[in-house]
Amino acid sequence: MNDMKHTQRNSIPLCLLLGTLLSLTGCATMAPKYEQPAAPVPAVWSGSNSTPAEGQHTVADIPWQEFFVDKQLAALIEQALKNNRDLRVAALNIERLQALYQIRRSDLMPKIEASASANFQRIPEGLSSSRRAVTTEQYNVGLGLISYELDLFGRVRSLKDQALEQYLATEQAQRSVQITLVSQVATAYLTLAADRERLQLAKDTLANQRESYKLTRSRFEAGVSNSLALNQAQTTVDASRVDIARYTTLVAQDENALNLVVGSQVSAGLLPLALSETPAAMKDIVPGISSNVLLRRPDILQAEGQLKSFNANIGAARAAFFPRITLVSSVGFGSNELSGLFKGDSFAWSILPRISLPIFDGGANKANLKVAEVDRNIAVAQYEKAIQTAFREVADALSQRATIDEQVAAQQSLTDATSESYRNSQARFEKGVDSYLAVLDSQRSLYAAQQNLISTRLSRLANLVTLYKVLGGGSAD
């Protein structure tokens, strides 16, 4: 009984010691206080209002389902978000970083392990102190800490913070992939629509030119027209045949690109027929926005997360200069007989504290701290460069946005005027007032104007897609 009381008295200071050490763990880190770098760009874009109009939402607040209103396009985006392999990789990267963060976080908590062991040994006569062979048995069962580090200087907590920021940065990377994917699907869809319309225009033009060629050939055979006019008509037919072959190839390539970005074969019912049938594929964007919206872009948030990660790593590098205390302890029962394992004075405990203090490491700790500080400075420069790049992307898109409507209107007016000129020249030729060369010139001008009108309309819609992307996109959930 006295021995048991003595054991209990010895265990009380041990518990107090452990409690005191654990209470000192993880109180703070040695990482420098994080301060967000100032954005190295103007507050507003040139020619843009500083704030949105009243009631107007920024692009980042508009879900993509509300921004892209074309039903076929929305269905393709939904399909891409489910099947695209780049997005799958981004999601798996999040799972991986989440697991790594959990590993770092678990280092802050004591790891307790239950153990049970048995040891059987026979000592021969030559090694026995009693000069007789001896057989021994030993049984142990216990519960204890496994190499737990008392984080007095925040080294483990800094590593945990670093892992957390990397995990959060990876989440933003996935959002960036989502926004890019949505814009890629929209761009591929619109490009296919434009090339299909160009192909149809080339086919319609070829049909008209063949009719003109037949008429010219009839006039030539009747002696009314000369061979020059006939050859000129033949060149226009051949030129249209070349365009048809070219646009047929482009349409096939556009479909392949759309299948790739969607991640599966796109059904024919979801393919666009012509760009003119999708004039309102998405909402318009009012350019009255502040450059502060860039700080909400996922790629900017990702760069800032990496910066915070490197900032936390400095705390771990600083803590490496100070002592590290680790504990290995156990408490349990031991006996030389299995039946007596939990009887009598079989209670046992052990604690193995270990303190390591760096004295001479050849400058490794100092160099590691320098690396951590330089990494942080590099991350600051990368963060600032990301903001500058984003500002330039938005500025370019807004510059085009400011004039694209005027371009479309001017190109439409030019196409209408060229179409009227072609009809007049055709009528004058049929009446014998003008030569067929005037008809060919006006016909070529009309065909070029129509093709340019398709390109200009595509540029306007593509500009809206670009603005959606560079302004941070909407929710892709």
Q: What's this entry about, in short?
A:
The chain has 477 residues and is α+β, with helices and mostly antiparallel strands.
How would you characterize the overall build of this protein?
Mean pLDDT is 82; it is low at 1-14 and 49-55. A four-stranded antiparallel sheet has the order 1-2-3-4, with helices on one face. The chain starts with a helix and ends in a 7-residue tail after the last helix. It contains nine helices and four strands. The protein is elongated. With 477 residues, the chain is α+β, with helices and mostly antiparallel strands. Helices cover 60% and strands 11% of the residues. It folds into two domains: 1-30 and 111-150 and 323-356, Outer membrane efflux proteins (OEP), CATH 2.20.200.10; 37-108 and 153-322 and 368-470, Outer membrane efflux proteins (OEP). Helix 4 (85-106) packs antiparallel against helix 5, helix 5 (155-221) packs antiparallel against helix 6 and helix 5 (155-221) packs antiparallel against helix 7 (298-319).
